[in-house]
Structure prediction request, 232 residues.
Amino acid sequence: MVRLLIAEDAQDVAEGIVFGVRMMWPDCQVVVAADGRAALAAFVESRPDIVVLDVSMPPPDGFEVCQRIRELSDVPILMLTVRDDTLDKVRALDLGADDYVTKPFEPLELLARLRALLRRQTGRSLPLSRAITVGDVTLDPATRDVRMRDVRIALTSSEFRLLAALMRDAGSVVPHQALLREIWGDEYSGDIQSLKVYIRRLRQKLGDDLKQPHHIQSDWGVGYRFSGSQRP
Prediction:
């Protein structure tokens, strides 16, 4: 059974999402919140499997709610906004959102993106079948545990999959398109900007200097390579 939290102050939009979800997942448990405070309270109480957040809902807004949820959970988050602004999209991804849809949107597209998020979270096999250590980083797909020099690193589901894909082919350049297709699916194969945001987040969590990264190195215009060398 899927548990979905929708935080959206526009009643017609919320009702449209609920109707579509009911058609797709008849047994889905749906909770609707009309502002940020109600959304945070509902998240703690219902522990949803997936969250839809409106950026511009009454305070705290979607950005702040996303950030606060990320402090508690790696649950998939899709954000909605009326602004088709690249900076807003980058900000949402930086705060931990997994996807971003601009209003007005096609209901079928939104539902497809929700399905993709759930598939990434629970239904898709990881590229590694056992724990692997590359340099000072160890990743275990069975426990979803990542450690660097025995210190645990907290990653979201998408960050974990991206790191697993890079570590599987450590030392080799993995092309942008290959990473996008493998981690997010064919519908995201052209979204290089989102990939850059996730790479930056991974570098920060691994303690890399963003100007001279040690673990995740760029091959400009081609892809990224995970280094197997020990950091000094």
Q: What stands out?
A: The domain at 3-123 is CATH 3.40.50.2300 (Rossmann fold).
